[in-house]
Structure formats: structure tokens, C-alpha cells
Specification:
Largest sheet: 9 strands, mixed
Helix content: 25-40%
Number of strands: 13
Order of helices and strands: HEEEEHEHHHHEHEEHEHHHEEHEEHHH
Structural class: alpha/beta
Strand content: 15-25%
Oligomer: single chain
Shape: globular
Distance between the termini: 47 Å
Number of helices: 15
Amino acid sequence: MLLALLVAIALALGACSQDGSSDASGSKGTSGSTRTTNATRPKGLAAKLTGPLTAGKGVFVGSPAPYEPAPGYVEEEYTAAGTATSYRSPEPLTGNGEWSLESGTAADYRTRIVVRRPKRASDASGVVVLEWLNVSGGVDADPEFNTLREEIERQGHVWVGVSAQALGIEGGPVLVRVNVPGAGDAGRGLKAIDPARYGSLKHPGDAYANDIFTQVARVVREGSVAPNLDVSHVIASGESQSAFALVTYINGVQPLTEIFDGFFVHSRGASAFPLPVAGESADISRSIGGTPTIFRADSKVPVLDLQAENDVVGVLGSVAARQPDNDMFRLWEVAGTAHADRHLMGGTTADAIDCGVPINDGPLHIVAKAAFRHLVAWVADGVAPPTAPRLALVEGAAPVISRDDDGIAHGGIRTPSVDVPAQVLSGVQGPSGQIICMLSGSTNPMVAERLAELYPTRKAYMKAYNKVVDAAIDAGFALEADRKALEGYARPQLLKG
């Protein structure tokens, strides 16, 4: 049941879209940073790149429409090949994350990477964002890029999506199929989807995914994904199933490779990804219900963990892996948000899903972009992000979110949508029994009498709303560059007068 739920959610995540919800302001890049990452790193193999690819139907990523580059950006695709190693642990993996992994077997691989970058190297910030593409729904999807797109492009960052897992290349079973754009390709794998372009790829299995990710990071750090690219920092990112994978990478692989300068972990569950042996697959069903696992407390690089409201309780239950902030860790939990919301799915897909009420329409992506800018500053200059309040819980055998009389969560990072509500945004699913609705949250109307009680006029509502916009930006939980986008979540039309 749990696997079926998350496969369905991931299919929806594969139908991501961008809303262009930001203006073009914001300081450009971090190439002038004072914090260097040129320290000696452990030596290791780097992937060999071939390309850009030109055959076949073009770049395939599990989205409803091809990526349309922003002005000054290009999209390219390469094969990445080499010999990767698996990892194993001589001792049981502990919940404190302080693991000591060892190399295991070796196997040849030939995967692909997708690169979205400034056309001119002089426009690049020097920051490369490496996303572990999400394969829960049977295709490579890029939910993190869709969440952070505006910030990546306005800052001039390079984004690289890595087909780290075998399912995206070779295909495999999909337990639940959902009628969303691209669902017909679920489980086929790139080699079957477009043999002319991807027929030469070969993935030896998920036991080698961590080292494939590392080897791509090494070649990226060399600047090989663009002519004359000067790379200053490489940051790993991943959402949902890929976030589980990053927990494992941070705790066991990063101490051996030291290849990443920071990690952006988005919507993890309580446990870590498994370490499969050769021939096994790794998926979220093998993670849920496992040992709750925190990030190791002795990380040498920054880790920012962003959690939606319904990541904290329920099926993912990340509350079991809560840990205090420290010099290299920040946890942000965002009230009134959901794991798979309207922005991430795209409006067409969201409208096609009947959860009994509309799915969550909260501004999680706006908070995410602020979080990512803080992470880049932390990596580059040593300036840590602000600490954030945790969501308030009602303790019990199964903790639940504490809520006010309107059903809005207490605590956590606050946005105008929850502090000046015209509707109730939450991570609680609607009344539908569809499994996809469990992580989609809900957007519920407020009755006219309650709205009149809260706001005597639309003018009063907008005054209160804009005051919280200012507060969120001042607190560092939203960017000035996203002010218009955050203001766009106001709903004065729901009020009378």
C-alpha cells in the first residue's frame, strides 16, 4: 500500500510545471565568494562524458512539456560512463547516521545526464546543482528543478540532472499507474522510450547509484559540462525518494568522497535509502518503516532539510528523525504545505485529480527558493540560514499536527496563506480514497461568516496579508525577488465587499 501510494505520487511529480512565479530581481551569482572549496579531496574516478547528444526525439524528462530554456539558457544532454563501485556496511546501519561504509563490487555503467546552463560561461555563477532524478513513478523526473527553477536561472546556476538509478534507464515494474501526462512511458526506461538516443545506455543496478552520482559530480567539478566553465561549488539536491537517497549519501558516502559542498534535501522520510547488493533495486518501499535515521552530526558541509507539513507526520513520518540545528544543519518545516502540491504537479494535472477538495495550493516552492539561496550563501561564505520553528505536535502513539479552530497548523515557518487565511491550506488529505491524495494535502474553503469575522473588508484583508509578506521576507523565509509571487497567493476574491 505504501509503495503504491508513493509510486502514484511520483507519477504526478513527473508531471511538473513551472509557473514563472518570480520577478528577475536578486543578486547575481556567488562566483566572488570568499569561502573556497578548492581544498584537497580524496582522489577517485570521474565519469567520462560524451555529447551533447543529438539523435532521437530529444531530451526526455518526466514532465508534461519539454523544457523551454529561459533567455540566455541552453539545455544539453550527455552520456556519462565509467566503472562504479557498490557500498556495503560491515556493521548494521545505526540511527545516528555515523556510518563507515566500504567499497564492494565494481561494474561498468553508461548513464545520461541533463544539463541546463547559461549559454555564456561568463554568465554562470560558478554554482552547480546536481539533482538525483526521481524514479518512483517509473521515469526520470526533475521535481527539484521545478521547485527551484526561478532561483537557479536568475542566479545563473548550472543544473545537472543525473539518471542515478537503474529504473530510469532500464525500466522496471510500476505498481500503480495514474492517468497523468507521460504515464504511458512509466516503467519502460529511456532505452525503450527512445532507442535511437538512449540505446547505448547501460545501468548495472542501484547498488552502484551512489558512486555513479559521485563520479558525475567529479566530472562536473572539472567544468566539463560547458566550455570555459569555472566551477566554485557543487551542491547535491533531491526530492522525495531522491531525498531518502541523499540521507544515505550524506551519512555514508560523502565522508569517503568529500565531493559535495552542500546538500539540499527536500521532503525526506524518517529513514534512509537501503544499500542494495548487486542485482537488487532500491526503492522507497524498502525505506519506509526502517530505522529512523538522522543526518550525522559531524558533517563537514552544510545540509538544509526542507519538509512540507505532511512530510512530518503520516506515511513519511519525518518527525521520528527530527534533530536539533547545529553549525552544519538546518531543518525547515513549512506550515500549510504538502509533499505533492499544485505547483509541483502543475495546474492541469492537479485539476485532473479528484481528492474530494482541491489539492494543496500552498507556496512551498517560494520558501524552498529562499532556503536554497541561504544554502548557497552558507556554502560560499559561511553565512548560516536562520533557524526556523518546528511545527507544533500533539504527542501520542502517532503524533499529529496541532491545529487551530480553522484547521491550520500551529508552528513551523509561516506564510501569509496560513497567518492571513482566506482558505484553509494543510497537509491533510481530502475525503477521497485515492491513494495519491494522501500526500497532496488539501485546500478547503472558509465559510463566509468566518471570513467576515476575520476581515471586515477586502482592504483589511490585503493590509494584513501584505504585512505578513513583509514579515516572511524580513525573516528570510521568502525572497524579495519572490515578493510578487507570494502576493499572488492572496485570495481577496473569496471575500465579500
